[in-house]
């Protein structure tokens, strides 16, 4: 059987996976459509498996990494889902209060990849909180397929309240210096944008390929923004021109980076959509942005 490489995959396959990952098609339809691209000794099963996340081999900062302290906690979200479980991480042996970062997951709950991102934020010198919006339904179920189905049963505005409550929790934490930022991915990118709308005291906001707020909400934004977009992500990028017009009209502080030739999800190193060069640059920029605004 041919060993698959990212370079061998047609863009249409990435587009199909994007549709599947965002509940536009179900798994059965995905498999049917993938059959068109199962050629040259490549089976549908092999193609499907290649596109799915590999959480075991892609962890960058392990849960027991001695450089950080990481534990699961619960906090109250009275306007959202009630008691919410979250991963709280900070550098080991920190001597002074740190900037707080809320890490917002995609549309499938707090999976191992987003836990890893929360630990990466701690390793970069922040105290981070990575909530699981699936907590009211029992929490991330151990796989993304079920996670997506579970998350689709929750109202996204109620989930927004859960992440706003996480912001309040981390801002008041004894190890936080009172300055806060948010970074989120896909669904979490939309949440990040909306937290900037809702929270006048948010100090920094970094949405990765996130849906944009309505133009009439842009005047409410106080936090400086760093907006990260994937060049091939026509679905999310369609909303960017109007968002930029509104940001300029209202004299908002923002930076926008569009990474050419990469797909939605390029920062997620557990799937073939990952682009190492773009992801590392985007994360480097994110950390520097937080260092500037959360110190």
Structure explained in plain terms:
By secondary structure, the protein is α/β, with parallel strands linked by helices. The N and C termini lie far apart (52 Å). Strands 1-2-4-3-5-6-7-8 form an eight-stranded mixed sheet, with helices on both faces. Helix 1 packs antiparallel against helix 2.
Using only CA atoms, what is the Rg?
19 Å
Largest beta sheet, briefly?
8 strands, mixed
What pattern of helices and strands is seen along the backbone? HHHEEEHEHHEHEEHHEH
Beta fraction? 15-25%
What's the arrangement of strands in the largest beta sheet? 1-2-4-3-5-6-7-8
Outline: globular
Number of helices: 10
Mean pLDDT: 96
In short:
The chain has 10 helices and 8 strands. The chain is α/β, with parallel strands linked by helices.
Task: Give the tags.
alpha/beta; 8-stranded mixed sheet; 295 residues; single chain; 37% helix
Helices and strands, with pairings:
Layout: H1 11-21, H2 27-34, H3 44-51, E1 68-77, E2 82-91, E3 98-104, H4 112-123, E4 127-131, H5 144-151, H6 156-171, E5 176-185, H7 187-198, E6 204-208, E7 225-230, H8 234-237, H9 240-249, E8 254-259, H10 276-294
Parallel strand pairs: 3-4, 3-5, 5-6, 6-7, 7-8
Antiparallel strand pairs: 1-2, 2-4
Helix pairs in contact: 1-2, 2-3
């Amino acid at each position: 059987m041919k060993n698959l490489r990212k370079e061998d995959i047609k863009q249409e396959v990435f587009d199909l996976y994007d549709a599947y990952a965002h509940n536009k098609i179900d798994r059965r339809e995905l498999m049917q459509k993938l059959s068109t691209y199962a050629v040259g000794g490549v089976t549908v099963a092999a193609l499907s498996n290649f596109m799915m996340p590999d959480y075991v081999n892609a962890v960058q900062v392990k849960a027991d990494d001695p450089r950080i302290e990481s534990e699961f906690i619960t906090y109250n979200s009275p306007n959202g889902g009630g008691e919410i479980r979250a991963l709280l991480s900070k550098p080991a042996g920190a001597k002074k209060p740190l900037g707080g970062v809320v890490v917002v997951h995609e549309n499938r709950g707090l999976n191992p990849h987003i836990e890893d991102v929360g630990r990466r934020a701690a390793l970069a010198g922040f105290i981070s909180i990575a909530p699981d919006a699936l907590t009211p339904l029992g929490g991330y179920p151990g796989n993304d397929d079920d996670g997506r189905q579970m998350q689709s049963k929750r109202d996204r505005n109620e989930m927004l309240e859960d992440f706003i409550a996480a912001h309040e929790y981390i801002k008041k934490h004894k190890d936080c210096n009172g300055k806060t930022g948010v970074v989120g991915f896909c669904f979490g990118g939309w949440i990040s944008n909306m937290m900037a709308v809702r929270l006048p005291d948010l100090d920094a906001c970094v949405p990765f390929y996130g849906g944009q707020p309505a133009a009439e909400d842009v005047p409410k934004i106080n936090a400086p923004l760093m907006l990260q977009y994937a060049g091939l992500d026509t679905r999310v990028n369609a909303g960017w021109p109007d968002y930029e017009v509104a940001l300029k009209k209202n004299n908002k502080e923002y930076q926008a980076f569009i990474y050419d030739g990469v797909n939605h999800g390029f920062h997620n190193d557990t799937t073939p959509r990952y682009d190492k060069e773009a992801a590392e640059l985007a994360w480097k920029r994110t950390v520097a942005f937080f260092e500037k605004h959360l110190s």
